[in-house]
């Protein structure tokens, strides 16, 4: 038969009364996502969801709205899932929550948690039962555990929670899926505290809607990643299939560009081909490879040569000043704006705008810049008049933009907008035959500036030709100027170079940093076995030894109690401060203090 509840207008189908909760220890039940039976223990009427078990329609709608905003705001999946769990923590009075997703091998792994350490959950310290979650994905059915302490699969996991002695912990797990088989789970842990079965069923329906949104987001993220990998493989295949020139490239290098190597000739040919067009150019290369010089060459070889060439270093200005610098501002738009000021886009009208270090701009400003690149329109800061400009854009960066897009630090649509014609500038170690020419060029420049007539010996040029110069042309220029300044004779010998006296600044920098990652866009320095630095420090900035494995679930309790006492003492025995230190809520730290029988001190 069908029942209608006047307080909660849902059509509910009566089902087998055996599934109703009875006295005694609770047992795990699986539930369907279809309409549920009423709880007749309250006089035959279905109770209205309380703030513990569920919210009214407006709160549920607001919560779903906030979750949809989070899932659609970034490509950083782990961060967005963690934010979703934090919202659910407030909405469902949730203590701990876990999201698991299947990897390439089909095995579930923890990707986001709240109320515990992500590292501890992944390494098994939290004793989270992935086997039980695998049952949820295998059956594609939600799972409700009314008392985790009474279920052998969840006993150890329940013991890791911050609870009072007589607290009953319940768990709800819902599969994450789209139109295919489930590929993950969303589980939350709640305090039972008189919660009715209907309220658990209400939570299951709500969590199912949340997992539908998560499923679509995960599927989209995986599709984007697969397409990106496919494009990279296709690009590599096409580059490999391109016919190699049988003869070396010939031709003249660009004006003011020193070199005769094949690498610099290839760049010169690309610049001459690209310059006459209006296409946006992205200059890629390590720091010190001469990206601004190439940008100027593109401008002066283009039909816009008689128009302005405006350059802006995006990393040199904070976001608010960068917006005013590029778009200009109206009089009185902010403190200090005593007059109207044109921005760099207006000043570059008809010419070329060079945006150096474009990879350093914030995601918020990236959206503003994208509109100008797409529409050619913008408004000054504090103004409402739309201005149109005709600007040829050249950008440069030493940052790995592809990695930044994957991490959600750089907008994918802006990446595609500026990466129309990429030109990769070679590092100096890839054009060693140009080192003597560049060294002589810088020495001639020094002689002219300082009225001297210095020259290099063959031995000195040979030493510099074998240096990798991780700082590229800029480092070579500094090396030449340093040697010329300290030279006491007209001929600079090899023993006059800093590297011959262990005073090379670049070598000192690399020995202190290690061999892991590039520094500020510089290259990797070659390190011999004898000069190899210490191992790379860990992500948190410290390099502690790890002689013992992490504690097991049975050994973690004394360490947890000691950690609580240390946090309370540091916070002056103020629970709210200690909670912030441990990343907990005041209620959670209250449970923890009771669990470990830690008496409060009055200072």
UniProtKB/TrEMBL annotation:
<dbReference type="GO" id="GO:0000160">
    <property type="term" value="P:phosphorelay signal transduction system"/>
</dbReference>
<dbReference type="Pfam" id="PF00158">
    <property type="entry name" value="Sigma54_activat"/>
</dbReference>
<feature type="domain" description="Sigma-54 factor interaction">
    <location>
        <begin position="257"/>
        <end position="485"/>
    </location>
</feature>
<keyword id="KW-0805">Transcription regulation</keyword>
<keyword id="KW-0238">DNA-binding</keyword>
<keyword id="KW-0067">ATP-binding</keyword>
<keyword id="KW-0547">Nucleotide-binding</keyword>
<dbReference type="InterPro" id="IPR002078">
    <property type="entry name" value="Sigma_54_int"/>
</dbReference>
<keyword id="KW-0902">Two-component regulatory system</keyword>
<feature type="region of interest" description="Disordered">
    <location>
        <begin position="523"/>
        <end position="558"/>
    </location>
</feature>
<dbReference type="GO" id="GO:0005524">
    <property type="term" value="F:ATP binding"/>
</dbReference>
<dbReference type="InterPro" id="IPR058031">
    <property type="entry name" value="AAA_lid_NorR"/>
</dbReference>
<dbReference type="Pfam" id="PF25601">
    <property type="entry name" value="AAA_lid_14"/>
</dbReference>
<keyword id="KW-0010">Activator</keyword>
<dbReference type="InterPro" id="IPR002197">
    <property type="entry name" value="HTH_Fis"/>
</dbReference>
<protein>
    <recommendedName>
        <fullName>Nif-specific regulatory protein</fullName>
    </recommendedName>
</protein>
<comment type="function">
    <text>Required for activation of most nif operons, which are directly involved in nitrogen fixation.</text>
</comment>
<dbReference type="InterPro" id="IPR003018">
    <property type="entry name" value="GAF"/>
</dbReference>
<dbReference type="GO" id="GO:0009399">
    <property type="term" value="P:nitrogen fixation"/>
</dbReference>
<dbReference type="InterPro" id="IPR025944">
    <property type="entry name" value="Sigma_54_int_dom_CS"/>
</dbReference>
<dbReference type="InterPro" id="IPR003593">
    <property type="entry name" value="AAA+_ATPase"/>
</dbReference>
<feature type="region of interest" description="Disordered">
    <location>
        <begin position="13"/>
        <end position="55"/>
    </location>
</feature>
<dbReference type="GO" id="GO:0003700">
    <property type="term" value="F:DNA-binding transcription factor activity"/>
</dbReference>
<dbReference type="Pfam" id="PF02954">
    <property type="entry name" value="HTH_8"/>
</dbReference>
<dbReference type="GO" id="GO:0043565">
    <property type="term" value="F:sequence-specific DNA binding"/>
</dbReference>
<dbReference type="InterPro" id="IPR029016">
    <property type="entry name" value="GAF-like_dom_sf"/>
</dbReference>
<dbReference type="Pfam" id="PF01590">
    <property type="entry name" value="GAF"/>
</dbReference>
<keyword id="KW-0535">Nitrogen fixation</keyword>
<dbReference type="InterPro" id="IPR027417">
    <property type="entry name" value="P-loop_NTPase"/>
</dbReference>
<dbReference type="InterPro" id="IPR010113">
    <property type="entry name" value="Nif-specific_regulatory_prot"/>
</dbReference>
<dbReference type="InterPro" id="IPR025943">
    <property type="entry name" value="Sigma_54_int_dom_ATP-bd_2"/>
</dbReference>
<comment type="subunit">
    <text>Interacts with sigma-54.</text>
</comment>
<keyword id="KW-0804">Transcription</keyword>
<dbReference type="InterPro" id="IPR025662">
    <property type="entry name" value="Sigma_54_int_dom_ATP-bd_1"/>
</dbReference>
